[in-house]
Amino acid sequence: MNTVTEAGRYLTFTLNGEAYALDIFHVTEILEYRSLTVVPMMPDFIRGVINLRGRAVPVIDLAIRFGRGNTVIGRRTSIIIVHIHDPSLAELAEVDAEDKDVAQGQDIGVLVDSVTKVVTLSSDDIEPAPAFGAGIRADYISGMARRDDDFLILLDISHVLSISDMVRLSDLAQQPTDDRSPAEGGGMPAGPGES
Gly residues bias located where (predicted)? Predict the structure, then answer.
């Protein structure tokens, strides 16, 4: 299994003024931002889907995924298409036989402020992920790479874009909440003898 903490080539990008990188092994292409088709009842971090050569590819806003607000669409906003293999999807594919391709992996778009460049990092450049202090969940980070006077956060893209986690969050988003009143569209009016 190819891990992000290995020496190799990484695609660097910015998000909310911070520099991140992911292993180029997962990247299939980089697109200029294009309008997205919004899918109702999805978690907030799924901004929509794009048509990529006839396939609907979900686009994830990393800023929202990291709990840092929405990515503001600008001139350099890009969508990085990554291919994720999530072994836990095998059980989901058994439930829906038409989704067997998903068990082999899934293309996902990642919305970022801008793509910077591809860099080559040696094992000497990479330090272990910090237990705290990076501003995002520790399991999303596979390492830190020294770069000039700063660090580049190396993302563990398989954790950041865990498809099974997103499916669970999507299912939760689609469940009605019990605490909403009928006026908010969250329930049925009480029947005879109910209050």
Answer: 184-195
